[in-house]
Amino acid sequence: MSAPPLPPAAPTQPAAGAPLPPPLFHARCVACWIVLSILALVVASFASLDLQWSRFFSLEAAQRMGRFVGELLVPATDLAFLGRLAAASLETLAMSALGTVLATAFGLLLAIPASRTHEGARAAARAPTRLLLNALRSIPELVWAALLLISAGLGPLAGTLALAMHTSGVLGRLYAEAIENAAPGPAFALRVQGVAEGRVFLYATLPQILPQLISYSLYRWENNIRAAAVLGVVGAGGLGQMLTFHMGLFQMSETSSILIAMLLLVALVDLLSYTLRRAMAR
Amino acid sequence: MSAVTGAPPELRDPAWTRRLFWLLAGAVLLAPMLVATEFKPWILLAPDNLAVTLRFVGDFLPPRLDGEFLALVAREAWRTVAIATAGMTLALLLAIPLTLLSTAALSVSALCGRMHAVPFVVRQAVRWLLIVLRSVPELVWALVFVRVVGLGPTAGVLAIALTYSGMLGKVYGEILESGDTHATTSLLRNGCGRLQAFAYGLLPQNASELTSYTVYRWECALRSSAVLGFVGAGGLGQQMDTSMKMFNGSEVSTMLLVFIGLVWLADMVSGALRRAIG
Fold this sequence. Notes:
The structure holds 2 protein chains of 2 kinds. Chain A is mainly alpha-helical.
C-alpha cells in the first residue's frame, strides 16, 4: 500500500525559541501508517462499490421510503393476523430456547475433551476439538440455517438446529475456558484419592463452574432470540419467515406489527434472562 | 468423619428432591417447545433427505478451485470487506454527532445540579433514536433498502450504517460517561465550549477505549455483511446463496473456507490493532 502524497515532514530539529509541533507524518511512526492504511481501505471500499446514491437520494426513493414509513406507523391489528403473529412469536421463542438448550448440552459434551483438566493431562483431543468448535462458531447462524434447509426442509427445525450448531461452538469454547480456569484444589483432592476422571468432573469441577455456565447460556439465549427472529428470512421458520412474506408483498402495516412483535420478544427474553441471573447471583 | 461423631453416614443425597423437581420442570417446559419447533430430527435421516444431504456434502470435497471461480470469490470477498468498511464509515459519520448530542458529560446546565428540561428532553430523544436504530436488526434494514434502492451493495452499506450507528452511539455515550469526567467539567466550568471540552478533555481520556470498540465493531460488521448477502445485498453471502440454491457443494465449500479465513484474518487484524492501542 503506497502512501498518498503528504506534505514533507517538518524538520525534527526544534528551532530556537518556541518548540515546533511534532511532524504530522514520518516513516517510523507506526500509528501514522495504521491511520493511512485505514484511510486507504475506506477510500478503496467506497471507490470499488458501485453505490447508487443517485437512486437512494432520488425523489422516487424518497417517495417510496415515505410511503413505507407512513404505513409502518399504522400497525395491522386484525384478529386473524394477530393470531398468526402470536403463533409465529411462540415459534421464534421456542426456536431460540430449544436451540440454546441443545447447544448447552452439545457445548458441554465438546468442552470436556477440549479442555486440559490438570497439569500433565495428555488432552490429546484438545486441539482437534477446539478446531471443530472454531469451525462451528465461525459460520454464522444464518449460513447454518441456509445449509440445513437442504437436509431439514423449510421450517423451524432447520432454524433450531442452526442456532444449536453455532451456539454449541460459542458455548463449547466458553465452557472449556471455564473448566480450565476452575480452581484445581477440589479436583486434585479427589484425584489423589484415586477417583476416576468422570466423577472428578461431576463432583469437583462442575459444581464450581455451574453458575458461570448458566450465566453464559442465558447470555447466549439473549443473542439467539435476536438471531431466531431473523433466521426465517432464509425460510427457517418463525417471525422472520412472516416478515419476508409480508415485506415481499409490500404490506408495510403487517411488517410493522411483526417488527413490534420482534422488539417485544427481545425485550421479554432480556428481562427473563436478567431476572434469572439476578436470582442466581443472590 | 462419621466415625468421629458416631452418627451413621448420610447415604441419601440431600439435594435429590430439588434435582428431581428441576428435571420434571424442565421436561414440562421443553415439551411444548418441541411441538412448536416441529422438532423431528429423524426426518434428517429419512432416506430421500439423507440422499440429498449426502450428495451435497459429498460435493464439498474437493472444493472448486479453478482460477475463474477463485477470481469471482476473491472479488466477492473484497466486496464483503468493502461493504463492511463503507458501512462502518457512514455509521461513524452518523454516530459521532449523535453521541455528542446525547452524552450528559458535555452538559453545561448539569454542572450546577440538575440538567435543564430542554437539553434533557433533547438528549433523551436522541437516545431513543439510537435505540430505534439499533433494535431493528440489520437484516431487516437490508430488506427495506433492497426494496428502495434495488439489489446490490448499497442496501448492505445502508443497513450496516444505520444499525451500527445505533450501537456505536450508545456505547460511545456509555464510555464517555463512565470515565472520570473531572477534567471535562473543569474545562466547561472555566468557560470552554462543549466541543473544546470534548476535544481536550473527554476525547484524549477515552480515545483508546473508543478506538478499540470501533475496531471490534468493524469485525462484527464484516461478519454481518457476509450474512446480508443472503437477502440480496451483495458480497460473499449472495454468491453463497446462489450456489446453495443450485446444490453446488464444491462451490459452497470453497466459499465457506474463504469466509472462515476472512473472519479469522479480521480477528487477527482487529486483535493486533487493539493490542497496539492498548
